[in-house]
Write a structure and sequence with these properties.
Blueprint: E1 4-7, E2 11-19, E3 28-33, H1 35-45, E4 50-57, H2 60-72, E5 79-82, E6 89-94, E7 103-106, H3 122-126, E8 130-134, H4 135-140, H5 142-157, E9 161-165, H6 176-187, E10 192-193, H7 197-204, H8 209-217, E11 223-227, E12 233-237, E13 242-245, H9 259-272, H10 277-291, H11 304-307
Parallel strand pairs: 1-4, 1-8, 2-6, 4-5, 8-9, 9-10, 10-11
Antiparallel strand pairs: 2-3, 6-7, 11-12, 12-13
């Protein structure tokens, strides 16, 4: 049984082999993509036992994703192959100048969007000691959001720890007001919340790291770790511990997608290993900085040896 569980959607991702408009690209490289899958991959590469819960279609994309899970050593007992609905996919442009790539999604009605509390297995989840959630899975559908709440409530009642990365996807929500309401309800179930500075401002209405952190700390969260872009990261705990960690200098930014997932990998892994909050944020910065030096969402996530620990 895995030590860490996450829930989300994975898609087949086709990354253009040449720069320029997606419409003009003729060659693509197939990869697996998904915020929660990226985190699961990063944690598995650091020798953590990880389980990923989802639904995939009974199609070639679904089989491809299952093969990727096996290659990374991620437990897939919680994955359902759903013959009724397809596995989603996406197209991603190639960039070499550090700008954000263009990503086009084809995920409406996907198998993962039909996740529900029926996908919750008490023995499986309760065997783990940590649950990692993101706002992406929360945005897929009402039933997927219900699963996340059910899992969070159940794990919290069992005394397990929970981390939450808002990972905002406004286009998947009916309105910003709904997104704010639903994600704050989920965030307050977590022990550790990991927003970007802009995400934190949207969700809390606050404009400073301290104000953003206090919003969630006052609602029961134990620590808020905020990604502050070029400045690095800032954190505050319920005990009043605060600190900032400077960004890791990167000379050649290749692909910014996946940086936040890499940051989550660093923070969550370090905290689960018993390291200090300061050390966890430092590791998060290091892995996030490494991730943006590679093409692809998870190619830059390091093994323990590559991390140098």
């Amino acid at each position: 049984m895995p030590d860490i569980i996450t829930i989300g959607e994975a898609m087949a991702m086709f990354v253009a082999s040449e720069t320029g408009e997606l419409a003009d690209c003729e060659r693509f490289i197939k990869r697996a993509a998904g915020a929660e899958l990226n985190v699961a991959t990063g944690l598995a590469r650091l020798n953590h036992s990880v389980g990923w819960v989802s639904r995939v279609g009974n199609d070639s994309f679904g089989r491809f994703i299952l093969n990727q899970l096996e290659k990374e050593g991620i437990d897939c007992q919680g994955v359902t192959v759903d013959a009724r609905y397809p596995t989603g996919f996406q197209l991603k442009s190639k960039v070499e100048d550090g700008t954000d790539p263009i990503v086009e999604y084809f995920r409406k009605g996907s198998a993962a969007s039909h996740l529900s509390p029926d996908d919750f297995s008490s023995p499986y989840f309760h065997s783990a000691r940590h649950l990692h959630l993101t706002g992406v899975a929360a945005a897929l559908s009402d039933s997927s959001l219900a699963l996340l709440h059910h899992a969070a409530n159940s794990m919290k009642a069992q005394g397990k720890t929970i981390s939450f990365d808002p990972n905002l996807r406004p286009v998947l929500w009916k309105s910003e007001a709904e997104m704010v309401e639903k994600l704050n309800a989920l965030a307050t179930q977590a022990d550790w919340v990991l927003p970007g500075l802009k995400e934190g401002a949207i969700l809390t209405g606050q404009r400073t790291p301290d104000g953003i952190a206090d919003f969630w700390l006052e609602r029961g969260v134990k620590a808020v770790i905020i990604k502050t872009g070029a400045d690095g990261a800032w954190f505050k705990s319920a005990s009043g511990e605060t600190g900032s960690v400077a960004a890791v200098k990167v000379d050649n930014v290749v692909d910014t997608v996946g940086a936040g997932d890499g940051f989550a990998v660093g923070v969550v892994s370090a905290l689960l290993e018993g390291h200090s909050l300061m050390y966890a944020v430092q590791r998060g910065n290091r892995i996030g900085a490494r991730a943006i030096q590679f093409t692809g969402d998870s190619e830059g996530l390091p093994t323990r040896a590559e991390l140098g620990e």
